[in-house]
Specification:
mainly beta, Neuraminidase, Trypsin Inhibitor V, Chain A, 2 domains, four-stranded antiparallel β-sheet, 1 helix, about 5% helix, about 35% strand
Length: about 350
């Protein structure tokens, strides 16, 4: 869905449980974990941004879950129960599932990895606290230098780095509140201050917002708030249970080339490619505007019977995330309702 809760689109549709999505840094793929329906067997999958191409990366009979892309997209960290003493450990692998390596190697339970924005560190939840309670631990990306950032009687978990790398948001307490602290573990501040449970914090790419899951409305919903905790808003507004938010990171535009030396003609500019946006659920007018902003051209519009709201896009071609030459046409199929 969009950041305001609109244009919701289902990406997976099966009888299994798909949880904890994590966008790739270029915004074209999503890693997630899937319970395979038989015993404690969960694997890490990856799919394209439109839900196609779902692929099992871990293929292991034990529990593998909670994937997290590295900032450069070259690695995926995840939690696995294949430790020597059947505890949870932090593993890392290549995006195709190869090279799976145990990083944490600790007798405690370690889970929920989160990369620092520069890719040099990984924060995670560990049961290394007094009496086995959860604390936030950070380590180098190769598993060395493991250091506890929190040390108290509360349960601290689910760390999330701010985009500038100076802060870490996390969930704490038996009920659950969202706190933020400096990256060295100092100056923790309660952002939510609510009697209902709040967890799963995730920073927006520009660092101005934090999305989180909240049990404030009789069921779990996705909320956003400003980075200082103000203006919490329910954006999912759905009777189902909505958890584990994650923001899509959109690629930055390419930097401008340097000016040519004096006396030389300017180089020929190559038109920016068409990167097809996601249009499902939008009105035709909004879809056409987004198509033009993406350096594409509006193509044919066909109408078809559908249970979806009248006037909303139900199919698009090419699919979201596809790269095409500048000005390539994007065709739409629009709902005309059931009649």
């Amino acid at each position: 869905m969009d950041a305001d809760g609109s244009a919701r689109t289902r990406l997976t549709d099966n009888y299994l449980e798909d949880l904890r999505p994590d966008w790739s840094p270029d915004g074209t793929r999503i890693a997630f974990d899937r319970w395979l329906g038989s015993g404690p067997n969960t694997d890490v999958f990856v799919m394209n941004a439109d839900g196609s191409g779902q692929t099992n990366l871990t293929n292991n009979p034990v529990v593998d879950f909670w994937p997290a892309w590295s900032p450069d997209g070259s690695k995926i960290a995840f939690t696995s129960r294949r430790g020597s003493d059947e505890n949870f450990e932090i593993f890392v692998m290549n995006p195709d599932g190869s090279g799976q390596t145990n990083l944490s190697n600790n007798p405690a339970d370690d889970s929920g990895p989160a990369w620092s924005p520069d890719g040099t560190k990984i924060a995670f939840t560990s049961s290394r606290g007094y009496g086995g309670d959860d604390e936030i631990v950070v380590m180098n990306a190769n598993g060395t230098g493991q250091t506890s950032l929190t040390d108290n009687i509360e349960f601290d978990s689910q760390p999330a780095w701010s985009p500038d790398g100076t802060k870490i948001a996390f969930e704490t307490g038996f009920i659950g509140e969202i706190y933020v602290m400096k990256a060295d573990g100092s100056e923790p501040v309660n952002l939510t201050n609510n009697a209902a449970p709040d967890d799963n914090p995730e920073w927006s790419p520009d660092g101005t917002k934090i999305a989180f899951a909240a049990g404030r409305d009789g069921n779990w919903q996705i909320y956003t708030m400003n980075a200082d905790g103000s203006s919490p808003i329910n954006v999912s507004r759905n009777p189902a249970q909505d958890t584990s938010p994650d923001w899509q990171a959109l690629p930055l535009p390419a930097p401008l080339p340097p000016p040519p030396p004096a006396g030389e003609p300017p180089p020929t500019q190559t038109p920016a490619p068409c990167v097809v946006p996601r249009l499902i659920g939008r009105t035709v007018r909004t879809a056409r505007a987004r198509i033009r902003r993406a350096n594409c051209s509006p193509g044919q519009v066909r109408y078809a019977r559908s249970a979806k709201p009248r006037g909303r896009v139900i199919r698009q071609k090419p699919s979201a995330g596809a790269h095409r030459p500048h000005g390539a046409r994007v065709n739409l199929v629009v709902s005309r309702g059931r009649q």
